[in-house]
Amino acid sequence: MSEAIASAGTRLRLRVSGAVQGVGFRPYVYSLAARYGLAGFVANDPDGVIIEVEGDGTSEFVAALPLERPVLACIDQISVQEIGAFGAKGFSIRRSEQGRSSTRIVADAATCQQCLDELFDATSRYYLYPFINCSHCGPRYTIAEQLPYDRRNTAMGRFALCAACAAEYADPASRRFHAEAIACPTCGPRLSHGIDDIAAAIAGGQIVAIKGLGGYQLLCDTASQDAVLRLRERKQRDQKPFAVMIGSLEQANKIAETNAAELALLASVARPIVLLRSRNNLAAAIAPGLSRVGVMLPVIPLHHLIFHALGSIGARPKGHSPVVVTTSANPRGKPLPIDNGKALQRLAGIADLIVTHDRDILTRADDSVVSVVAGRRQFIRRARGYVPEPIRLARSVPPLLAVGGALKSTVTVTRGNEAFVSQHIGDLDTAEGIRVFEETVRHLTSTLDVRPVVMAHDLHPDMASTRFAETSGCALIAVQHHHAHAAAVIAEHGLTAPALALLLDGHGYGCDGGNWGGELLLCEGARFRRIGHLEPLQMPGGDRAAREPWRMASAILQMQGRGHEIARRFASQPQAEHLRALLERPCGATTTSAGRLFDAAAALLGVATSQSYEGEAAMKLEAGVRQTFVLEAGWMIDGDVLSFRPLFSRLIADDIGATEGAELFHGTFAAACVDWAARSAQTTGVTTVVLSGGCFQNAVLADEIERGCLAAGLIPLLPRQVPPNDGGLSLGQAWIAALQTAEQPQALEGTA
C-alpha cells in the first residue's frame, strides 16, 4: 500500500488489485465507507476495484480496508492517490468499467455455513433450494465468461432477478449484496429431478449422474457392491480407484486414518478430494489393492441435500452415515461432459438416472485431488476450487503461453509477475481431448486478456501440444521435459540461485532423443546440465513395457544374468517364453525411468504384472509399506550413473515376501537418491535440491527423500502449488521461456 495520508476533507482514489471481484468486496467497501461516514463510490474496473472516498475518516478507512476483507478476497496491492474534494454526498456502488482486464476471477467455493443454515431453515425462502449461494460461496470461475465479474458476464446473465432477489442484491446490509450468482426458487436455475427421487435411486443401488460445479459426476452407494461393480463395468474402469463423498468430518475418521492437515484440507473452501489412509472398511472395489482412498465432503447445495435425504431414508443401521462413490462422469477416453445434451447422450449407457439443470457450465473443471506429503499439501490434480489462483513469480515476465505435455495436460499463461496454470485438462490422445485443450487456451487467454508473444512447448516433436504451438505463429521455445519439471518447482519457490534437481518419473523425451526418467540435473538460470541418471534398462516391447510391468521385471532378470527364469516366473504371460530372445538383442529400446523400476519391483514381488491405469503397479507397491528398511550397499554410483543392481539381486530372491520387498525397495531407493544428491552437492557446491516428477506422488518416497536430504544438510524443495506429475510441466516451461526471453529479447521482435 502507498503511504499517502489524506488530510481532513480531502478525496482519495484507491485502486485495489487481486482477487477482488465476485467475492463481496464492493459491498464490504460500501459498509466500511458507511462506518466512517464517507462519501464517494466503488466499482469494478479492468484492474480490480476502484474506490473514491472523501470525508474526515478517510485515513481510518484506508487503514481498515485490507484488515477486514471478505473471506474469499485476496488483495495483491492497494495504491492511494489524493485528489481534490468534490463535496459529494452519499456513497454508491457504480456500474463496472469495461476495458482490457488485469484483474482475475476467484475459484469456485464450497457452500458456506450461513447458506447451509438457510438451506435447511423451513422459514427461509431458500429452503431446500439446490442453487443457494452468496458473496462468500458458490460458483465463480466455472460460470464466468469474461471480466469484469458481473452477472451479465456469467452463465447467470439470462436469469432475470425476481423482486425479492433484486432487493437483496441492492441491499448493502445483505450477504447477497451484488452477489452475481444470486438465485432463488422463483427466478433461478432448476433441477430436472427432485431430491427425494435422486436419493431413492442412490439408496436403491442405482447409478446417478448429476451436474456439479465443473461437470457431471457419477454417484452410487458404497453399501451396494453390485452398484460399484456395475459402475466399473459401464465406465470401463477395471481397477482405477474411485473417490467417495461423506457427509461430515466425523465420518472421515471412521473410514480413514486422518491428521489435522488432512482434515483441514477436507473442510477448506476448495473442497478437494483428499487421499487418506483407508481403514479398509469400505467395499474392496472402491480402491482395489490400494492403501489410500480419495475422500471429499459435499461441495454444492445439491450434495448436501442428497446426503440429508439419504439420511432420512432410514435403511442403514443406526450411526452408519452414507458413503457415496463420487467420480467424474467422463466415459473412458472422453472429456468431462458439461453440456446437458451431450451428457444425456453419453451417459445414457452408464447412469440409471441423469440429473440436469439449466445453469450452464462455461468452463469444465474436474475435482481437485490432493494429499499431505511431508506435512504439507501436494497436488495430484489441480482444478476446481484452486484454479485460476495465480502463482507469483520472482519477477515480471512477457506475456507467454506454455502448452504442457501430452498426459495430465495443463497450460500456463503469464501476466506480469503472475503465472496462471489452467485446470487439469487430461490426456491429449483423442480428438476431443485436443479440442478441450484448445478451448482451455482460448478461455484462459481471453479471460485474462493476454496476447502471448512467445509459446513454450515440450521438446518431443510428436506431441499434440507441440503441433499446436508450431501452428500458432508465435515465437517458439522448446523445453526439455525434466528441465520443465525442475523449473516448475524453481518458479513457485522463487529461486534465483543454481539448484540441483532430482527428477523421477515414467518418461520424458531426452535431449539425446532417448527415454529419460531418473535424472539429476544442475539448473542455472535458463540452462541445465545433466549430471547424472539411473542405469539404463531395456524396455522389451517399447511403450508396451509401461503397461505390462512383468516385461520390466524380465529386463531386470536378464540384467542380473537370470533371463532363463523369465518363462517360469511369468508363465501366465503368453509371450514370456519369447521375451528372453528379444532382450538378448542389443538394439532394443532402453530407459533411465524411475517409474519403470517401480513397475519391475512390483512385478518381481507378485504385486502387479500388468496395469490398467498409469501408476497402478507403483501405487499397489506403495500400499504394502508401513515402514521402510535400507539394504546396506543396495546401490552403486559409478561416475554419473546410479545403479540398483544389488537391490534387485535381493528382490528376485525366492525367500522375500511382497511386504518385505516393498518396504526394502522404498527405503533403499530413497536412501540411494539422497546419497546421489549429497555427492553431487559436494561436487558442485549447490545444496538446494528440487524434487519433482510423477514418482513424487508416492508419499512414502517423497517423505523419505525429503527427510534424508535434510539430514544430509541439503535444502529439499517439493512442488506445493502444482502437481509433481506432468500437470506441472506448463509452469516450468513458462518460467524457462521467460528466462530465455530475458536473455534474448530479440526473440520477441516481429511478434504480436
UniProtKB/TrEMBL annotation:
Record keywords, A-Z: Hydrolase, Ligase, Metal-binding, Transferase, Zinc, Zinc-finger
Span of domain Acylphosphatase-like: 11-95
Gene3D superfamilies membership: 3.30.110.120, 3.30.420.360, 3.30.420.40, 3.90.870.50
Catalysed reaction, written as an equation: C-terminal L-cysteinyl-[HypE protein] + carbamoyl phosphate + ATP + H2O = C-terminal S-carboxamide-L-cysteinyl-[HypE protein] + AMP + phosphate + diphosphate + H(+); an acyl phosphate + H2O = a carboxylate + phosphate + H(+)
Keyword match Cytoplasm: no
Pathway this chain belongs to: Protein modification; [NiFe] hydrogenase maturation
UniProt key word Disulfide bond: no
Domain YrdC-like: 192-385
Name of the top EC class for this enzyme: ligase
GO aspect biological process, one term: protein maturation
Entry annotation: catalytic residues: R26, N44
EC number per UniProt: 6.2.-.-
GO molecular function: acylphosphatase activity; carboxyl- or carbamoyltransferase activity; double-stranded RNA binding; ligase activity; zinc ion binding
Superkingdom assignment: Bacteria
InterPro entries on file: Acylphosphatase-like_dom, Acylphosphatase-like_dom_sf, Acylphosphatase_CS, Carbamoyltrans_HypF-like, Carbamoyltransferase_HypF, DHBP_synth_RibB-like_a/b_dom, HypF_C, HypF_C_2
Function description: Involved in the maturation of [NiFe] hydrogenases. Along with HypE, it catalyzes the synthesis of the CN ligands of the active site iron of [NiFe]-hydrogenases. HypF functions as a carbamoyl transferase using carbamoylphosphate as a substrate and transferring the carboxamido moiety in an ATP-dependent reaction to the thiolate of the C-terminal cysteine of HypE yielding a protein-S-carboxamide.
Family as reported in the entry's similarity comment: Belongs to the carbamoyltransferase HypF family.
Name the record gives this protein: Carbamoyltransferase HypF
Organism, scientific name: Bradyrhizobium macuxiense
